[in-house]
Structures are given as C-alpha cells and as structure tokens.
Fold this protein.
Amino acid sequence: MSKRKHIGILSGGGDCPGTNAVIASVVKVASSMDYHVTGFEYGLEGLLKPVACRDLTTDDVKGISYLGGTILKTSNRGRFTSKTGAGEAGGVEPAIIDEAVHTLRVLGIDALIIIGGDGTLLTAAQLAGAGINIVGIPKTIDNDLGSTETTFGFSSAVDVVVDALDKIHTTATSHERTFIVECMGRSTGWITLTAGLAGGANAILLPEFDFNVDDLVNFIQTRRRNHHRSTVIAIAEGSRVGGRSLFRDIHDGEVHYSGISELLMGAIEDRIEDEDHEVRHVILGHTQRGTMPNAYDRGLAKRYGVAAIEAVADGNFGQMVCLSNSQMGTCSLAEATAQVKRVSESHYEYHVAKRLGIYIH
Ligand code: F6P
C-alpha cells in the first residue's frame, strides 16, 4: 500500500484578508484526496526549533473562510527575515534553510504550500533549491507582485480605505478642512490609487512619483478660491515629501513606515495663507490588513487554494499559482518574485485620475 501523502502549509509575512479562506480550501480538497495536512505556525519560523505545528482537519477549518488574519499565525520578523530595506532582499543563511529542511524530512512532509509575499516567496525558492517540493501562493494587500494579476486581500484593503474616505469627506466638507489620509504601501501605491479613485480623493500621492509641497498647496488654494473649500488627499505611506521618505529604521534594516501624513500636514500648514484653513491627518495603518475579506477576496482566495493543492497532486513543484487573464495558472518561484508591479503614467488608472482633474503625483 502506498504511503498517505503528507502536506505542510504555512502563511508567512504580514497577515492578509483571505488567508484563512486559502487554508480552508487547501485542507478541504486535501482531505477529499485522503492527504494528511500539517499546519506550521508563525510562518517559516514554525519550521525551526522549537517547531510549531499541528494537524489540520476539516473540523479545524470549519467556518474560518470569512475571518481576517490567519489561524496559523504569521511573522514578518525573525530568523527568516531576508529583507534588508525598502524593496531590497537578500538570501536566508544556509544553516537556517538546512534546519528547516531537516524539520520537513523528519516529519515526512512530501510537499509544502507556502502562502506569502515577495520576502517569503524568495525563501520558498531557496527551500525548493534545497530539494523541498514547494508550491507558493501569492499574498499581499499591496497587489504589487508582477507575476500575478491580483492578489487576495487587496480588494478588502481598498474597501477599508474607501470607507474611510467617505467618512473623511463628510467631516472635511462640514469644517471646510484639508484632510490627509495615509494608506499602506511602502514602495507601491496601488491601494492608494485604487481607493483614491473610488473614494473621490482630490489628490493622490504615490511612492512611484515625486511631488512638490508648494505645488500641492497651490492646488489646494486654487480649489478654495473656486469654492471647493475642502480637499481630501490620499497618500501612500512610502511617498516622499521634498524627496524625503519617512520611516524609522528600528534595527538591522527593519523599517517601519508611518507618519508621512503628519509631516505633510505640517508642511502644508507652514505654507497656507488663510489662518482659518485647518489641516488634519489620519493614518489608516493596520486597519487595512486586519479587515475581514470581502466577497471578491474570499472567492479569489478559494481559487488560489484549490489551484495550489491541485499543483501538489500533479507534482507541479517549484511553482507559484498565479492569476493570468482571469485564469489560474502557475509560474516558477524564480519568476514569482522577479518583478515588482509599480504604478506608472502608462496605467489607465493614472490617465483616469488626470482626466478627472485629480492632483496625482
Ligand atoms: O507588505 C504589506 C504591508 O502591509 C505594507 O504595505 C506595510 O508597509 C507593511 O506591510 C507593514 O508591516 P508591519 O507593520 O507588519 O511590519
């Protein structure tokens, strides 16, 4: 009798709405094929001593698909951290990879499904290089992986921002204020651009471009002279004010973004002529990540989950499942992280913003 297939699954990097729907789909399909599933906790860290893992049965994943976060926990810090700065990445030390491989061999894992963003998928490629049968699933609210059309979690994060913009418009109009709404996105501005368009932002500021504060203040003051007394600005956290991005380097290249909206608020206040003109800012931060997955993301996450376990069944390893022309497919783990998808002037959304008179920089 052949051995029952043993699958591992883990979620690494920042949490992302839809991850639980992916896990549930993988476990349900795997159990229908009589595979044994082990979930590793705390992302890749769970592969290292003290190993953190547990069996996953269909009972464990009952009713979790609509929940945000990940039942397997996750980590974007620790011994597997290979990011060295904004957008840069280095490899994980061979000794760490060897220890993870050892854990998987001892447990008799035949294949490992890794749900992760660019950093986690780079390590997935290293594990594949070390002989582990890997299938990757792309996961980021930033939607900036060039190898797949859309990642689950993005649409839900956009919903959070649009909801906030609707509320901010209300109060901004009542008080005739300028409001700056800070969105996630350290090196790419997809959340800010998509939500800014949908939520009627008057100005959209993205990490991909530079903007000039004097020019922005001029835009705001011209609006006020033309009876548009309030202005709502959507800004991505990784944007630069006067060529300067704002982040705190905690240690060893561990970077926290947050606070560009406050810096910009001060810069605008210093320049406005009208003393009655007040400026406020809001940082949406992790509310964008911690939300429940919306209907679109639940459906997309289930598609990714089913495609991943089918790739395992087919022995299609060293691959990441991806969405291309609305169809599920696969690409190599090397391709998966090769390209960051950035907003450019040639994107139609940029054109739409321009045509609508939105200040986009
Ligand atoms: O990569 C996803 C992301 O949401 C970024 O947009 C954001 O800068 C980052 O995670 C924040 O991560 P954390 O605060 O958890 O380190």
Summary: The first helix runs from residue 19 to 32. The pocket of 6-O-phosphono-beta-D-fructofuranose is lined by residues 14, 76, 117, 140-142, 184-186, 237, 257, 289 (CB under 6 Å). The mean pLDDT is 94.
